[in-house]
Automatic annotation (TrEMBL):
Residues 101-274 form the D-isomer specific 2-hydroxyacid dehydrogenase NAD-binding domain. PROSITE patterns: D_2_HYDROXYACID_DH_3. This is Glyoxylate/hydroxypyruvate reductase A. InterPro entries: D-isomer_DH_CS (IPR029753), D-isomer_DH_NAD-bd (IPR006140), NAD(P)-bd_dom_sf (IPR036291). Keywords: NAD, Oxidoreductase, Pyruvate. GO terms for molecular function: NAD binding; oxidoreductase activity, acting on the CH-OH group of donors, NAD or NADP as acceptor.
């Protein structure tokens, strides 16, 4: 009865240490070391290498060490009968909210514009926006989106949310499904994407959607690169329909050096750092799920296999 960690970055040891510190009685292995394959009960994964999950005949659960599980659904080799859990964590939500707030404040006070002007020693004052006059629309009002929505309301932004089901959050105007998407978009000056990447949301940030936003709208994508149609975004920026974009996530990561985003004056990119799982904060729920697995209790934060998130 053990946990195997499958990921391709340099964080395997960090997770292993954190798990051992919290639960010394659980055997934890890196998939890279010698380990008894038939003893693995839980696979703790993050962008795991292909064709690895099927090596474990007695696996009972796939535990994602982050919030987004799209990479697991995209793994054709994944044993389909296994439950999938993901991370729901207050730091993941507050870190995301802080990042998006930073992007919004930078936009409404033109900080990116002045940074560019500075490189040319240009002194060019520009009018700025006030919080009370700015509407922010969040696509995806889940664990991360709802924390952001509450923070935006607290600051005094007009706050709108779009999701599959109706949300009742003080001060947030909730829109539901495709039928209310255009109504949501036409009132949104800053669009934040916090949707999971599923068959239904892939490529949702496209020309048709951008056209429904008011002229001068600003786009923040902190969800997944697969939501964005890159050429459509650049076309709408170049036509001045959109005033700018902050992008933390990309189709291919690291973003290839040849990508046009790197040089685009209206695009501000960051290397997928908006919100990163904090091992100390997240490990207790992984251990709790392992214990639940052992005692046959329902798992925490289980993903819906049918919905894909
Ligand atoms: P979540 O709790 O599952 O929330 C997803 C939200 O999207 C829900 O409100 C859901 O509606 C809505 N939704 C899903 N499909 C929809 C559709 N077709 N139409 C309308 N609404 C739809 O997810 P989360 O924990 O907030 O995380 C969101 C995403 O953030 C993750 O999947 C991940 O890709 C991304 N993320 C990025 C970073 C980063 O560093 N950039 C870090 C963490 C997470 P219902 O509430 O009605 O179900």
């Amino acid at each position: 009865m053990s946990i195997v960690i499958l990921r391709q970055d340099d964080k395997i040891d960090e997770w292993k240490k954190a798990l051992k510190a919290r639960a010394p009685h659980i055997n934890v292995y890196s998939y890279l070391e010698e380990h008894p394959k038939d003893d693995m009960t839980m696979a703790l994964v993050w962008k795991h290498p292909k064709n690895t999950l099927s090596r474990y005949p007695n696996l009972k659960c796939i535990s994602c060490s982050g919030a987004g599980v799209d990479f697991i659904f995209n793994d054709r080799d994944r044993p389909k009968h296994l439950p999938i859990t993901r991370v729901v964590d207050p730091y993941l939500a507050s870190d995301m909210s802080e990042y998006v707030l930073a992007a919004i404040f930078s936009h409404i006070k033109n900080l990116n514009h002045y940074k560019l002007e500075q490189t040319q020693a240009k002194w060019s004052p520009k009018s700025y926006l006030r919080i009370q006059d700015v509407s922010v629309g969040i696509m995806g009002v889940g664990e991360l989106g709802k924390t952001l929505a509450k923070d935006l309301v607290q600051y005094g932004f007009k706050t709108l949310g779009w999701s599959n089901s109706k949300k009742r959050i003080n001060g947030v105007n909730s829109f539901v499904g495709e039928a209310e998407l255009s109504l949501f978009l036409e009132q949104t000056a800053i669009l934040v994407c916090l949707l999971p990447l599923t068959n239904k949301t892939k490529g949702i940030l496209n020309k048709t959607l951008f056209t429904l936003l008011p002229k001068g709208a600003f786009v923040i994508n902190v969800a997944r690169g697969g939501h964005m149609v890159d050429d459509d975004l650049m076309e709408m920026l170049d036509k001045d329909h959109l005033s700018g974009a902050v992008l933390d996530v990309f189709h291919n990561e690291p973003l290839p050096t040849s990508h046009l985003y790197w040089q685009h004056p209206k695009v501000h990119i960051t290397p997928h750092i908006a919100s990163v799982s904090d091992t100390a904060s997240v490990v207790p729920q992984i251990v709790e799920n392992y214990e639940r697995l052992m005692s046959g209790q329902p798992l925490l934060n289980e993903v819906s296999i049918t919905k894909g998130y």
